[in-house]
Structures are given as C-alpha cells and as structure tokens.
Amino acid sequence: MKIGLMGGSFDPIHNGHLVLAEQVRTRFQMDKIIFIPSGNPPHKETMASKEDRYNMTKLAIEDNEYFEISRIELDQDHKTYTIDTVKRLQAMYGDSVEVFFITGADMMIDLPSWKNFDELVTICKFIGSTRPGVDYTELSDQIDALVRDYKADITITQVPALAISSTDIRRRIKYNLSIRYLLPRTTEDYIYTHNLYCDRRTIL
Ligand code: NAP
C-alpha cells in the first residue's frame, strides 16, 4: 500500500494543494492521500484556529474518494513532529506501507533540522512541490547533499497551480479582493460565514 501524507497548516487550503495531491497520487499510484493539518507547528503560529483549518480542509476534499483527513496532529496538545506522525500512521497501517510525505519545497531546505531526521529518512520518502517564479538553486544543491549524505528519497515536483498561496488568499480577504476560483467554493463559503482572515490587525 502506498500512502501520501499531505502535511501543512492549510491556513486556508486552496486549489494548489488539491492539484498537487491529485498529481502525486496518480503519478506515484498511491492508494490514498491523507491531509494532515498541523496542530501546533514547531516553529510558528497559524491565523485560523485548528478547528477552522480542519473544517475548511474537510470541505475541500470531500468530493475526492482518494482523499482523507486526519486529526492525528490537531488533537495533540503539545508540539507535533513529522517523525511521530509517520510512526503513528505506520503503526495503524502496518510496516509494509510505503509512506510519502508531501509538502512545499520551501520546507525541504530545513529538513535536516527536523526531529530525528536521520531516522525519518529511513521510514518515509519526501515529495516537495515548487512554486512558480521562485528560484530553487540553493534548494537543489541542498537536496543533492541530503540524497548523498542521508540516502534520502526526495522528489521535487512542479505544480503551476501552486502560484496560489494561502498567504495571498489571506491578504485578498483582508483587502476585500475576490478569492473566487482560488479554492473550492465550499471552503470559500466557510471562510465568509465564519469571518476568517478579515481582521486587519492580523499579521500576514
Ligand atoms: P506551512 O507554514 O503551512 O507552509 C510553508 C510553505 O510550504 C508555504 O509556502 C506553504 O504554502 C507551503 N506548503 C505547506 N504545506 C504544503 C503542502 N502540503 N503542499 C504544498 N505546499 C505546501 O508549513 P508547515 O505547516 O509549518 O509545515 C509543513 C509540514 O511540514 C507540516 O506537516 C509540518 O508539521 C511539517 N514540519 C515538520 C517539522 C518537524 O518535524 N520538525 C518541521 C517543520 C515542518 P501555502 O501557504 O500556500 O500552503
């Protein structure tokens, strides 16, 4: 069995995330993609609450039978780390499951600082998605080093739809600009119904 774990804050989830998940699912013939909204990310604050990020993600994926959502990180009170998440999911699905951790390529540059990275590379593969218009020269050198030094299995994939970003969506809402077609309509409706991201004092 092959499972893709889509890790991210999803603050909010958008069509770039969905296109990426569907592309890697089909390219790597994965059985399912599990979206894992981060609970208390080790290094940052989120703008929307855990429950709002969970609800927005759940609404966004509901029409894809291969997509699921997990509360595995959201329900932790303490900071969550990818190594613990992957191990818990492996315990649920069995050791023979092949796990791919999918996230933004930006995050890959810091991989060696992730908790127990040397063990993490032995139990999961990584897929990082690049954003159009960003120079990844430094990242490419870094990844070569990770493959060489840690035998890490890292694939970088380009998804033009990732020109959409959560930061831009939050900024658009703050300045009353349209977010139509950047994310599923159900998620857009949820954002407006719950008055998310409209406080001009929030830090982007
Ligand atoms: P984030 O703030 O949500 O996003 C950071 C950057 O990556 C943003 O540009 C974001 O774009 C992009 N991104 C995030 N998730 C993505 C996804 N699934 N697909 C494509 N692009 C994505 O990132 P985060 O939540 O802090 O971290 C991402 C994942 O890495 C989480 O699962 C987190 O737990 C894990 N992580 C683990 C450790 C550790 O174990 N020590 C350390 C750092 C991160 P958008 O804003 O448009 O989404």
Overview of the structural elements:
- This protein has 204 residues and is an alpha/beta fold.
- The chain has one domain: Rossmann fold, CATH 3.40.50.
- The chain is 39% helix and 17% strand.
- The chain contains 8 helices and 6 strands, in the order βαβαβαβααβαβαα.
- The protein has helices spanning 15-27, 50-61, 82-93, 105-108, 117-123, 137-150, 166-174, 185-193, and strands at 2-8, 32-37, 67-69, 98-104, 125-130, 154-158.
- It has a 6-stranded parallel beta sheet, sandwiched between helices.
- α2 packs antiparallel against α8 (185-193).
- The radius of gyration is 17 Å and the shape is globular.
- The mean pLDDT is 92.
- The protein binds NADP nicotinamide-adenine-dinucleotide phosphate (NAP).
- The site of NADP nicotinamide-adenine-dinucleotide phosphate has 25 residues, from β1, α1, β4, α4 and α7.
Q: TL;DR of this structure?
A:
This protein is of the alpha/beta class. The chain is 39% helix and 17% strand. The protein has helices spanning 15-27, 50-61, 82-93, 105-108, 117-123, 137-150, 166-174, 185-193, and strands spanning 2-8, 32-37, 67-69, 98-104, 125-130, 154-158.
Spatial order of the strands in the main sheet? 3-2-1-4-5-6
> Which stretches are low in confidence, meaning pLDDT under 50 for 5 or more residues running?
none
- Average pLDDT taken over every residue: 92
Number of strands: 6
**What is the fourth-level CATH superfamily?**
HUPs
Fill in the CATH topology: Rossmann fold
Q: Helix content range of the residues, please?
A: 25-40%
State the CATH architecture. 3-Layer(aba) Sandwich
Helix-strand makeup class: alpha/beta
Heteromolecules bound: NADP nicotinamide-adenine-dinucleotide phosphate
Instruction: Give the N-terminus to C-terminus distance in angstroms.
Output: 39 Å
Largest sheet: 6 strands, parallel
Rg, rounded, reads: 17 Å
Strand % is 15-25%
Overall form:
globular
H and E string: EHEHEHEHHEHEHH
Total of DSSP H or I helical runs spanning 4+ residues: 8
